[in-house]
Write a structure and sequence with these properties.
By secondary structure, this protein is mostly helical. It contains 14 helices and no strands. It has two domains: 95 residues; 148 residues, no CATH class.
Length: 277
């Protein structure tokens, strides 16, 4: 049926089901000249393999990408990358399907804010625990505000401070722990620079920041939190280190912390920017 000259018949072949392991037939679907055939793989995508989803998300026809964004079968990380799609209809469809964009309904019987349990953080550092809380409750609007706040600093100075922090990290156990955090956050924020678990630690640490050139506010806002980790845990207690720490952590502190805040999780409970939604 995939050889039929009528595109509707070829689309029916996709809807009828192609075995997930049949890579040759899925390649023919991706190479089909008619968008309706490729779109069928997204709309009826229960058996669609991951490599097909990845290719469909980059399809030149916006209707195919919109079908991926709206599909309940698409992998979450593929769908979240479409949040930055240049076509507003595609980005809107991705935001509508994304669970982070759904409104949170709070029952009136919930306890007061001071009694709410904070998201768990396994770090012994109080600043990192508060930063983990920020990540757990981050919204799209807050990511954009982080990006706008970071844009007011000198990008060359921030890049230099980040490079110095990454060089200080080296390849030890602390560097590996931060690289593991990077891997989790790269998936969480759907950054366009996935990190291979087989790469060297130095490559893993630098990988997320390759997405900065040409990135939108959603990605830039997320990467300010990556910078904050380096500022909190790596910069030394020297004049240069303190200056670098200020550069790397100021956007996060200005957006998510109240003035003159001491970074301990107990003081975050009453702050609207960091309180659980």
């Amino acid at each position: 049926m995939l050889d039929d000259p009528d595109h509707r018949v070829r689309a029916t072949a996709v809807i009828a089901g192609i075995h997930r392991q049949d890579g040759a037939r899925w390649k023919r679907v991706l190479d089909d000249p008619h968008a309706a055939v490729r779109r069928a793989a997204a709309v009826h995508g229960y058996f669609t393999p991951r490599f097909v989803w990845t290719a469909l998300a980059a399809d030149p026809v916006h209707g195919v990408r919109k079908a991926v964004a709206a599909s309940r079968h698409a992998p979450a990380e593929v769908r979240r990358r479409l949040l930055s799609d240049p076509d507003p209809a595609v980005a809107t469809a991705a935001a509508t399907r994304d669970p982070l964009a759904a409104p949170v309904r709070v029952r009136p019987t919930l306890p007061a804010d001071a009694e709410l349990a904070l998201p768990a953080s396994h770090s012994a550092d109080p600043g990192l625990r508060l930063l983990d809380l920020t990540v757990a409750t981050l919204t799209f609007d807050r990511q954009r505000l982080l990006a706008k706040t970071a844009a007011r600093t000198d990008p060359a100075a921030r890049d230099a401070a980040r490079d110095r922090a990454l060089r200080l990290l080296g390849h030890g156990e602390h560097a590996r722990r931060i690289a593991e955090r990077w891997i989790r956050w790269t998936d969480l924020f759907a950054l366009p620079a996935p990190i291979s678990g087989l790469a060297w630690v130095a490559e893993q640490l630098a990988a997320p920041f390759t997405a900065l050139p040409g990135a939108d506010d959603r990605i830039r806002g997320a990467l300010t939190l990556f910078d904050a980790v380096l500022g909190l845990t790596v910069t030394p207690d020297t004049d240069q280190g303190r200056a670098d720490r200020t550069l790397l952590t100021t956007p996060w502190k200005q957006v998510c912390l109240p003035p003159e805040h001491t970074p301990t999780p107990s003081t975050a409970r009453g702050h609207p920017n960091c309180a659980p939604a």
